[in-house]
Amino acid sequence: MNNSLVVNLYPSPSGETDERLAVSTASVSFTGAWTATKTKYVLVDIQGADVMVTFDGSTPTSSNGHLFKQLTAPFFWHRDTARLAKFIRAASTDAAVQATPFNV
């Protein structure tokens, strides 16, 4: 029998304010105003168009960063990952990124 470490997350909204970014030709980031005591994770949703994202402090471009597609299922990032993320549109259409803070 194999050993398993299973962690079930049942996150709930932390009560802190959502943040929405308008993503265009200039790099944008979340303000990261979520407090460490309330918010552990951030639910991120890409809307309207694809975006490029970096987490290493560099500016995303069409050839630098990770491609995040619009209309994929929303995903959870750790609060610190969301704070590091920088976004720019991947093509000629502007996008939006919605973030909702959660705790466990």
Characterize the main sheet.
Answer: 5 strands, antiparallel
Overall number of strands: 9
Distance between the first and last residues' Cα:
30 Å
Q: What is the alpha-carbon Rg in Å? A: 15 Å
Describe the protein in words.
- The mean pLDDT is 90.
- Strands 1, 2, 4, 7 and 9 form a 5-stranded antiparallel beta sheet that branches. Strands 3-8-5-6 form a 4-stranded antiparallel beta sheet.
- With 104 residues, it is mostly beta strands.
- Helices cover 6% and strands 38% of the residues.
- It contains 1 helix and 9 strands; from the N terminus they run βββββββαββ.
- The chain is globular, with a radius of gyration of 15 Å.
Condensed summary:
By secondary structure, this protein is mainly beta.
Write the layout of secondary structure elements.
Layout: E1 12-13, E2 19-23, E3 28-29, E4 41-47, E5 51-54, E6 66-68, E7 75-78, H1 79-84, E8 86-89, E9 95-103
Antiparallel strand pairs: 1-9, 2-9, 3-8, 4-7, 4-9, 5-6, 5-8
Key terms:
104 residues; mainly beta; five-stranded antiparallel beta sheet; 1 helix
